[in-house]
Amino acid sequence: MKKILNHPDDFVDESISGILLAHSNFLTPVEGEPRAIIRKDAPVQGKVAIATGGGYGHLPVFLGYVGEGMADGVSVGNVFTSPSADAMFEVTKAIDGGAGVLYLYGNYFGDKMNFDYAAELAADEGIRVETVRVSDDVASAPFESKDKRRGVAGLFFVYKIAGACAEAGASLDEVKRVAEQALESVRTMGVGLAPCIIPASGKPTFEIGADEVELGIGIHGEPGIQKQQLATANEIIAQLLEHLVSDLNVKSGDEVCVLVNGTGSTPLEELYIAYKEVHEWLAKKGIQIYRPFVGEYATSLEMAGLSLSLLKMNDSLKPFMDAPARTPFIRL
Amino acid sequence: MKKILNHPDDFVDESISGILLAHSNFLTPVEGEPRAIIRKDAPVQGKVAIATGGGYGHLPVFLGYVGEGMADGVSVGNVFTSPSADAMFEVTKAIDGGAGVLYLYGNYFGDKMNFDYAAELAADEGIRVETVRVSDDVASAPFESKDKRRGVAGLFFVYKIAGACAEAGASLDEVKRVAEQALESVRTMGVGLAPCIIPASGKPTFEIGADEVELGIGIHGEPGIQKQQLATANEIIAQLLEHLVSDLNVKSGDEVCVLVNGTGSTPLEELYIAYKEVHEWLAKKGIQIYRPFVGEYATSLEMAGLSLSLLKMNDSLKPFMDAPARTPFIRL
């Protein structure tokens, strides 16, 4: 295992420590709870607060989305492991500005269990909590049971929309409604070329042949739709888009935001080749691109591959997409 | 070779095409010269223009630094290969706003030859050109012959400082003087864990053992100071800092900007572990951090490793460091 670290057991804590040292003007841990990190200016009085959280190893997901116009606080687990309900509860108390808290996170069993328990603890303290679980990965379950899908890079779009809505002063019910609208409008599918290695185990997250890719892979190496021969960028992007456009029911004349997301070790140069293919494929179908995003928005350590997300736009989402956002990792 | 591309011969052109499609509001190619890319608002009348360029495969170096407060135009070569003097000359003509042009690029033989020839062509057209070649890689030549050193991630700091100086309305002589001051104040050293593969050849840039790292590696896989056993983040960072601090003559009470740069496939999580080590090492020596940067600022496709740059600060550099900058890849 060739990684820049000290000891695998300290991987998460030392990495968070580096983030807090580098960005102490933006982020602060909750006292006594180093895995609960909040905006430096939290709680923002009168604003709906957004709490997120999940396993480590997906930067900028989740910690990187804490900042103005996005999330207010995050609980951080070990690599690919849910954080504790205690950390979630500490975040909740620290960010509540009196207008309630939205729990916004990816749809995984451990996270759901712990966030649900934290919500009970919060209710006992008189803090109103609502929940939206992002489930954008079309490869992880069929349309008929889309509530069972995993949450992947589409999280970015839901943070962006819900965060802007909260920043604009909307009520908790309204922020939840808008987050659900964003969730209904987003789909993601990925392709994996090579696994990452989890520091604590020293093991790769999946096995794959030298000339194979895994279509529909999850961000922890969960199996996708199929293993297949490595194809051209043109062919891979067409496969992903056919699934996304069909599932999201995007048609000629529609507008979408596009996210070409690198999963960790994919060069930006390759992501832009992929973006060119996306742009040309959508143009041929008469689908307009409202705004493109290309880069690393949800990673799996050094996993090689990419994911493609589409967010179907409408006039009510545009002001939230266009609003500024500023975290140590994302500036829009 | 497992990459997301169509044909290796089209790698650069298709990737640039994706960048121009995604960022057409910021960037435009010079007519008839697709490898000459300029700011959309170029030429900015009365402003000193900054031209850069070099081989492809180092994003955001070089193309990613074209934008407000940084460079005005770029000529793009094939992967790890100098662009043509023609492309450089086309950039020069397209960005000159009447106040002259600074050529600011990394110290490599091919780039020097072509930029020098482009400067002659520009002189024939009555455009004044001055040149600053960045040579920040301490591992590539001893202090006594530091003009022979290669240009690596420290380019970022020189773009930032010189770009802000030009944006503030300084003369060509003044922008050159400030760029040279930044160059005198910056040092970089890298460590390589695994090579990248050049698309056209399908070959890795260097050979390395499963438990080895190469200290002082160049951004094209040029040999460094030594191959050594993989050590802890703490030990690697101490090695790099000892070289940098000695070469730059940084002492207790001095202030530096820090850049922990990922070379392509290094997870951000590891870069922040490295940053923690940098922060603690410098604190012990009484060296203050003026501003930290952690992320991918100069890559080598999917090479694994990192580089560490220090910029010794003084009061005259601070306003240039703090000025805003905005490109499709960098927002400060």
From TrEMBL, chains A, B:
<dbReference type="GO" id="GO:0004371">
    <property type="term" value="F:glycerone kinase activity"/>
</dbReference>
<dbReference type="InterPro" id="IPR050861">
    <property type="entry name" value="Dihydroxyacetone_Kinase"/>
</dbReference>
<keyword id="KW-0418">Kinase</keyword>
<dbReference type="InterPro" id="IPR004006">
    <property type="entry name" value="DhaK_dom"/>
</dbReference>
<dbReference type="GO" id="GO:0005524">
    <property type="term" value="F:ATP binding"/>
</dbReference>
<keyword id="KW-0067">ATP-binding</keyword>
<dbReference type="Pfam" id="PF02733">
    <property type="entry name" value="Dak1"/>
</dbReference>
<protein>
    <submittedName>
        <fullName>Dihydroxyacetone kinase</fullName>
    </submittedName>
</protein>
<dbReference type="GO" id="GO:0005829">
    <property type="term" value="C:cytosol"/>
</dbReference>
<dbReference type="GO" id="GO:0019563">
    <property type="term" value="P:glycerol catabolic process"/>
</dbReference>
<feature type="domain" description="DhaK">
    <location>
        <begin position="7"/>
        <end position="330"/>
    </location>
</feature>
<keyword id="KW-0547">Nucleotide-binding</keyword>
<keyword id="KW-0808">Transferase</keyword>
